[in-house]
Amino acid sequence: MALPKVTRTKTEHHTPCDACGADLRFAPGQEKLLCDHCGHEQAIPRALGRGQSGLVELPLEAGLLARLPGDAMQDSRTLRCPNCAALIEITGANHAGQCPFCATPVVTDTGLMRQIKPQGVVPFALTEAEAHAALSKWLAGLWFAPSGLTQYARKGRKMTGVYAPFWTFDAETRSYYTGARGDAYYETEQVQVEVNGRWETRTEQVRRVNWTPVAGRVARDFDDVVIYASRSLPPAYMAALQPWDLSALTPYSPDYLAGFEAEGYTVALAEGHDQARTEMARVIDMDVRRDIGGDKQRVASINTDFSAETFKHILLPIWTAAYKYRDTSYRFVVNAQTGQVRGDRPWSAWKIAFAVILAAIAVGLGVWLYNNQQY
């Protein structure tokens, strides 16, 4: 059966001020929109307030088969970075001049893209100033980091607020396993040891393991397994920004995007689902080992049945900074909910060389003092 034809229209996140008509922006940590032109404050409708109420879980099978209802999809105009492949949505009159993740000044207009609409968003909690403070503190705490980079970052360099795309997956699982349980016991043995050039016989307790075949089943319900849905930042960066407090998720509204950029997902739903299954398998393996018990465990096989699988596309807030210092680019990201920081590890060759020289002087002085004490 042919699917109905969908007319694609450009969607822009443009929220005008009721007082002057200028663009409003979302105020981090507050439930309101601000106008930088006239100072007017405008509340976000209460129905869109924080909390889980109203969030919609989508059936995974329909998503994988591209059979979601029309209201679960949206068309958006995007810009693609040719360096890191970030996909940035154009919101209102905001057109990216450079990539917020790697500072590449040229981005390519990809036109309209048909994608799954976000079901939820965690609004920004930290302001740009607070993100700057967190970044400066993180840089100051790094050993052998260039002092100039820390000062450069503190000089009011702009940070960009970006809503990063994520998938969340739910599933009910029932797993059947086979393996072996290892129970430790000790045996007394006589061993020969050399003491001051002479061999002596000693009694020692030697640890042994008795293995018993086992089989059983475990069950676990997974709720909101979070998978980063982009490749613009290394997975280690996003993992370091965890945990996210998803209790702050609120139903998606373009109002929360006012004044910020939003990144489109580049990790397809199917690939995200595979990553989530891998995360679930890791947890199930730990459940199996706990169920086996004993001092050691051997897992021969785990067969898992998945049911009631659903997913959401959500947006989580980060502040990004891409600085070019002495011909080297550095990328930093700040969790705009918790203030956790991760970025490229800068090294100062001068500081390292100075530390090596000091260490060599200390060693030389120690040797000199030791030799003098011998005479």
What order do the helices and strands come in, and which of them pair?
Layout: E1 24-26, E2 32-35, E3 41-43, E4 58-59, H1 60-64, E5 73-80, E6 87-89, E7 108-116, E8 120-121, H2 128-140, H3 147-154, E9 160-195, E10 198-228, H4 235-240, E11 250-251, E12 261-263, H5 269-292, E13 296-325, E14 328-335, E15 341-343, H6 349-373
Parallel strand pairs: 8-13, 9-12
Antiparallel strand pairs: 1-2, 2-3, 4-13, 5-6, 5-7, 6-12, 8-11, 9-10, 9-13, 13-14, 14-15
Helix pairs in contact: 2-3
- What is the terminal-to-terminal distance? 99 Å
Count of helices?
Answer: 6
**Structural class category:** alpha+beta
Q: Helix proportion of residues, in percent?
A: 10-25%
Total strands: the figure is 15
Global Rg? 28 Å
Low-confidence stretches: 1-12, 47-52, 347-356
Order of helices and strands: EEEEHEEEEHHEEHEEHEEEH
Major sheet: size, sense and barrel closure?
A: 12 strands, mixed
Mean pLDDT across all residues, rounded?
81
Query: What is the overall shape?
Result: extended
Protein traits:
single chain; extended; 22% helix; 375 residues; twelve-stranded mixed β-sheet; three-stranded antiparallel β-sheet; alpha+beta
Give a written overview of the molecule.
22% of the residues lie in helices and 39% in strands. The longest helix is centred in the C-terminal third of the chain and has 25 residues, at 349-373. The chain is extended. It has 375 residues and is of the alpha+beta class.
Brief description of this entry?
This protein has 375 residues and is α+β, with helices and mostly antiparallel strands. 22% of the residues lie in helices and 39% in strands.
